[in-house]
Amino acid sequence: MTNLSWKEVDKITAELINKIKTSGFKPDYLVGITVGGLIPLGMLAKSMDMNTVVTVSANSYKGQKRGNLNIAYLPSIDLTGKKVLLIDEIAGSGETLRQISQILLKQYKVSELKTAVFVISKDECKFLPDFHIVETTEWVVFPWEKRKPTK
């Protein structure tokens, strides 16, 4: 298990912003996957000086056990022709990112979509995000999480 500190998260955020800027991608909207992606969404939005921010509520975990993706909320906003950066804190299998990406491309008809996370699960991630910083095989606990989830 890896416990990240706020200082480490600040460093990861700065590195992620640098990667996004260096790529030349300039999103019109930031879309965060709740609940885990809320804090990364806020940190990236503030760092990128963006206020066009929306959320999607989706989850595929109960504790540390992965299940089917449950989508609880999709925004009622017109993103047709917009460039979107989809944000989450971690890509375990990458399945949540993959499915939400497909929804944004097909249903919302975004013109360009990129994905960003702080961490990927090196051994399990099948859908690699466009931007990430940390690669690990361990369970990651972020500073905004109280403890390791129960099984």
Automatic annotation (TrEMBL):
InterPro entries associated with the record: PRTase-like (IPR029057), PRTase_dom (IPR000836)
One Pfam family of this chain: Pribosyltran
Highest taxon listed in the record's lineage: Bacteria
An MF annotation (GO) of this entry: glycosyltransferase activity
Span of domain Phosphoribosyltransferase: 6-145
Keyword entries, A-Z: Glycosyltransferase, Transferase
PANTHER family linked to this entry: HYPOXANTHINE PHOSPHORIBOSYLTRANSFERASE (PTHR43363), HYPOXANTHINE-GUANINE PHOSPHORIBOSYLTRANSFERASE (PTHR43363:SF1)
Protein's name in the database: Phosphoribosyltransferase domain-containing protein
Species whose genome carries this gene: Candidatus Yanofskybacteria bacterium RIFCSPHIGHO2_01_FULL_41_26
